Amino acid sequence: MSRLQKMGEELEIDAASANFSARTICASASQHQRQGWAIALSGIGVGASTYVPAITIATRWIALERQGLAFGILLAGASTGAIIFPMLLTDIIAAVGWRSAMQAIAGMIFLVCVPLLLWAARMPAVPSIANHLPADLPDGHGIAQALRMPRYWLWIAMQMLLTLSSVGIFIALVPCLVSAGYSAQHAAAFLAGTATAALVGNFLFGMLSDHWGAKSILLIGTIIGVAGILCLLAAADPALGLAAITLFALSWGSTFNLVNQFSPLLLVEAMGQRNFGSLLGIGNLIAGLGSAFSPAAVGYLVDATHTYTLALWLCAALAVAALIPIALQYRRGS
Considering the domain 143-327 in this protein, what is its CATH number? Predict the structure, then answer.
């Protein structure tokens, strides 16, 4: 990697983290419509300084055959934070108010995260990684060339379909369980159970990918996730409901995040290392914009049918459709 490319990564990560810190402060001081814009800009900072840069940096340190597990550990850390910090923030907001809490978050990001990212982005790549890449792995393509290649758009379609499905389930899960007769507390507990299962899935499927490959694991994981969604359809059954929801939490929870874990590996295999960070970012942006329609679609179906059944079937169908672009992923030269 050239020094210019490396400096670009460093500046992107550092600037995005500083941007997130500043925007969080702005959000805490904003009123009415301006508050929404400030929070939206904070979201841009989050997206620009988390998943894509973290994955890009990790590819410089970890050999390709070990990256599935490495990305699983990275995502497990993020999931752990998502489980712990909401509870802490609830207590902090109750004690000092949401404005002071957001300002404290911004200060912590600026004082802790920015220096850590400065250190991480400036660590040199492990020289041995380049020497252990498979011989048939492409060096890569220019961005304009990649955007004209069907395999890149198949990769984006895979991401979009799986994200549409998982976001729809996440949005619908708690109200779906409440409508099926469960208390809000029990529904929230099952939601937390899916997060716990995701931690286990990140490690388990990451280790399996060392032997079976990212494509095979993502195919298997998607099928398991679809089976979990079908279990959720039986949530209201008096005899099978509790067992069905438990199976859903274990199966869907352990697999819904595998697309974020293994899509970077599939991208490297299909497109090569050159411009990896840019192509990953473009693909995630397009897939993210597309998946933003999922909550609206789920809400429309629920309002139209007064039941979550059709919405759950739609989420299952989207995941099944994703099996096609996953199966069509391939390494150039194979």
Answer: 1.20.1250.20
